[in-house]
Structures are given as C-alpha cells and as structure tokens.
C-alpha cells in the first residue's frame, strides 16, 4: 500500500497541472495572458492551452456593450441652485489591451469623468435651460467622454440623463407656475369661446336687424306707394268733380243774380268761428244787394231794363254722368291682371331655378317662350327708354 502513494501523488499533480493548463474563453469575451507578469497574448473565445505556473489569464474582458447607471449627484447651476442628476452611459470595449492596462479601473474613471463633465456643463446653464436642454447636455457629455475614453480603448455610444430633480422649493414653485399657466390658458380659451359666441350672436342680431330694417323699408315703400296712389286717386276724383262742376256752371250760363245769391249764402260761413269777435262787412255786399234788388224790380216783358238778361234754357247742356263704380271695377280688373302677371312671372322664375336646363332645352328645340305680361311690360318700357 505505501508503494502506491507516490504514484497517486504524481497522478494528482498531473491532473492539477493539466486542468490549470487548459483555459476556455466564452463567447463575446477576450482573455489577456501574462507570462511571468508580462503581457503575452490575447485569447479569443474557445479552448486554449497554457503553460502551467508560467502563463496566467490575468484579465477576462466582456466585449459586449455595457450599460452603467450612475447614482444621482448634486450639481450647482449658474443661478446657484442645487439639482440632482441621474445619468446612464452606454459604452463598449474596442481595445482590450488598453482597457486593461491604460486605466486602473475604467468604470470608475468613466464615472468620475461623467461627474466632473456634468458639473462643468450644468454650471454654465441656469435652472430653466438645464431642464429644457437635455439633448444638448447629452451631446456635449458624449463628445467629452468619447474623446477622453478613446485612449482607454473604450467607445462611448450614448449618454442619457434619466432625471433632473430641482430642490423641493423650486419644484413647488414650478408646479404653481405650471398650474397658473394652465389656469391662464383655460381662462383664455373660455374668454375666446365667449368672444366667439358674442360675435356669432351679434352677427345673428345684425342679420335679424338688417332683415327687420329691410322689412320696415319695404313696408314703408309699400305704404308710401299706397298713399301716393290714394292721393292720386283723390286728386283725380277732385279734378273730375271740379271739372264737372265747372262744366255744369258754364253750361247753365249763370247770371249776375245767381252769383249775388250765392255770395249772400256764403256770408254766414265766412262769419262763423269761435275766434271771430268783430265781423267787417265787405264792400261787395252792396253790389250784391243792388243786384238782388234789380232782379226783384225787373219787368219780365222788358228784359233789358232794371236787371240782367235771363239765361236761355235751350243753350243749357247737362254734363255727362260719370259712372264711378264702373271706373272702380275697371281699376280692380287692371290690378287683378297685373297681380296675375306677377304670379305667373314668379312661377316661371321658380321653374327656372328648379330646372336650370329647361330654358336651354326649349331654345335648342326651336320652341318659343312667350314672356309674362309683366315681362312684356318691362321689355316694352326698356325698349321705349332705349328709343328715348
């Protein structure tokens, strides 16, 4: 049994040596081999054979893109306000030898460089600019980190600011300002809606007022036309009455006695009135009395003495009788005919509006459209106006 102990020790030593001489590198990782403390070679993914005790894999670096979040850090802005900034950096190792030997700890170096760069960038901005310029801050921070970490064999791909937290007092003031701005916008929108409502209602009132004014104007025009026609009819009636009376008087051949008698009958009318206190007897009264006296003393066998000559009844011609009712009926017939013509014209206009192509079809078919009486009258008036 004791003779097998040395052989067993030798076997164990061989197993330990073989296990230490074989090294497996996983995918997306790079191993750096040092021989007697000096860099020797790079090990790619896969199995590798090393010299025991002499070769040693000192660094096993991950070549994938790494995401490193940094804890919130306080930064003072240009207007002397402390803000906490929470950032995250995406970087990747492109040169394993530099990443292992140029920096003692590249993650710590990147974190400290990020903190100092943020202090420099945020220190040149005020609070409002720092809160609204995240993209600008990211671009500046990325360019500075990429330039500084290039000699470390690291490529900074992206830099993001996850949060910028102002002090509680400033945050409360900002919330109040945002609330006030929202209230202001709501008040502006409400006022704008009320203004538009008032504008629309004023427009409706204006249109209704215009329609009322047009209706009042048309009604006034119609009333004026009716008054004009009534005055014309009264004037025509008075003119006809005066003409009839005038013709009747002249046809009756009145003498001086009749005129004197009519004058005497008009005297009481002249003297009638509440304001008449004194009545002056006109000078023509004596002449009228003389005429009446001469008529009373006149001899019927001597017509030329003591009075006026009597009128010859054979020369009297009674005026023609005027049939007022017939004239009224004729006027009503004319007005009825004019209204019917207006109705027919309106019907034709409505038909044209409903069927715009009707007039074109009639003209193409060679047909003839007879205008309404009102249209004929308008055409004749236009023609007469052109001739004049």
From TrEMBL:
CDD domains: SPFH_paraslipin. Residues 20-178 form the Band domain. Residues 333-388 are annotated as: Disordered. It is a single-pass membrane protein. Pfam families: Band_7 (PF01145). It comes from the Bacteria. The keyword Transmembrane helix applies. Residues 375-388 have a biased composition (Polar residues). SMART domains: PHB. Keywords: Membrane, Transmembrane, Transmembrane helix. The keyword Lipid metabolism does not apply. This is Paraslipin. It comes from Cutibacterium acnes subsp. acnes.
């Amino acid at each position: 049994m004791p003779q097998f102990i040395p052989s067993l020790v030798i076997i164990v030593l061989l197993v330990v040596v073989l296990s230490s001489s074989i090294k497996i590198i996983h995918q997306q990782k790079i191993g750096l081999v040092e021989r007697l403390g000096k860099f020797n070679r790079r090990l790619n993914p896969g199995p590798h054979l090393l010299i025991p005790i002499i070769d040693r894999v000192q660094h096993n670096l991950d070549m994938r893109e790494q995401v490193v979040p940094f804890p919130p850090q306080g930064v003072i802005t240009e207007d002397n306000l402390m803000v906490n900034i929470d950032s995250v950096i995406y970087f990747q190792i492109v040169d394993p030898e530099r990443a292992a030997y140029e920096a003692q700890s590249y993650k710590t170096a990147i974190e400290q460089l990020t903190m100092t760069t943020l202090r420099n960038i945020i220190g040149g901005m005020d609070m409002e600019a720092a809160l609204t310029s995240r993209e600008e801050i990211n671009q500046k921070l990325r360019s500075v980190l990429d330039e500084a970490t290039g000699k470390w064999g690291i490529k900074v791909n992206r830099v993001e600011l996850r949060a910028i937290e102002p002090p509680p007092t400033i945050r409360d003031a900002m919330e109040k300002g945002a609330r006030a701005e929202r209230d202001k916008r709501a008040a502006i929108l409400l006022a704008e809606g009320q203004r538009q409502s008032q504008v629309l209602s004023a427009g409706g009132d204006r249109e209704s007022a215009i329609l009322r004014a047009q209706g009042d104007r048309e009604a006034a025009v119609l009333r004026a036309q009716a008054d004009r026609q009534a005055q014309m009819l009264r004037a025509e009636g008075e003119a006809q009455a005066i003409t009839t009376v005038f013709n009747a008087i002249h046809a009756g051949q009145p003498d001086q006695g009749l005129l004197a008698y009519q004058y005497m009958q008009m005297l009481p009318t002249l003297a009638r009135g509440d304001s008449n206190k004194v009545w002056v007897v006109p000078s023509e009264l004596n002449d009228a009395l003389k005429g009446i006296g001469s008529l009373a003393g006149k001899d019927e066998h001597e017509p030329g003495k003591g009075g006026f000559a009597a009128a010859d009844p054979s020369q009297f011609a009674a005026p023609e009788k005027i049939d007022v009712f017939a004239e009224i009926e004729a006027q009503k017939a004319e007005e009825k005919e004019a209204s019917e013509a207006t109705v027919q014209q309106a019907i034709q206009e409505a038909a044209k509006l409903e069927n715009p192509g009707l007039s074109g079809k009639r003209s193409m078919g060679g047909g003839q459209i007879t205008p309404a009486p009102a249209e004929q009258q308008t055409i004749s008036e236009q023609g007469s106006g052109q001739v004049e």
